């Protein structure tokens, strides 16, 4: 399905439940649950309504990241390489912008992952994963408390100032199947290392 071939309108409705943060802290994590509706104005695509969960860093004066997760689209990650309000990018109507693919390195702790391509919107200062493994790497780093550094030659080189794990992260993990799988893998690997020591 090529969404670009026809116009679509999107509406996000905040839901209720344990995964919703009532107040946004200065710096930390915020988990939310949403009911997302996509209405297509033409073409043969059917309208969609689905549950969506998000987790994002709350500081708007520095780079950060945001995960989204749904049964329909799996888990995805957005990185900001400059100060940006990630939640507003998600909830406020955005003009359609042409995305371009750029090569980027991601370090998790001291480990440099292979160069991969991410979609970038220069005006929004955000990057989006192109493959599921890219969001899995980010979630694995978060759950292990590892720093994440993102770099694209001649464009940016940023180590994200990530907050420590808290109940908001755990709320997202409980609601996102892929994040829950990664949490189980991290727990098993940590137990295996502890047994080897």
From TrEMBL:
Q: Which domain of life is it from?
A: Bacteria
Residues of the signal peptide? 1-21
Keyword tags:
Signal
Protein known as: Uncharacterized protein
Q: What's the source species for this entry? A: Henriciella barbarensis
């Amino acid at each position: 399905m090529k969404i670009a071939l026809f116009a679509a309108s999107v509406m996000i409705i905040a839901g209720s439940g344990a995964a919703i943060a009532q107040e946004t802290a200065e710096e930390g994590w915020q988990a939310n649950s949403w009911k997302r509706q996509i209405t297509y104005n033409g073409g043969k695509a059917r309208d969609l309504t689905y549950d969506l969960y998000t987790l994002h860093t709350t500081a708007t004066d520095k780079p950060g990241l945001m995960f989204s997760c749904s049964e329909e689209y799996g888990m995805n990650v957005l990185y900001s390489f400059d100060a940006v309000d990630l939640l507003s990018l998600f909830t406020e109507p955005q003009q359609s912008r042409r995305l371009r693919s750029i090569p980027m390195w991601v370090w998790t702790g001291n480990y440099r992952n292979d160069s991969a391509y991410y979609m970038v919107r220069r005006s929004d200062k955000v990057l989006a994963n192109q493959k599921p493994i890219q969001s899995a790497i980010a979630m694995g780093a978060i759950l292990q408390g590892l720093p994440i550094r993102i770099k694209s030659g001649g464009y940016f080189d940023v180590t994200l100032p990530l907050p420590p794990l808290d109940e908001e992260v755990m709320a997202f993990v409980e609601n996102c199947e892929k994040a829950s799988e990664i949490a189980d893998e991290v727990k098993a690997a940590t137990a295996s290392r502890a047994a080897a020591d």
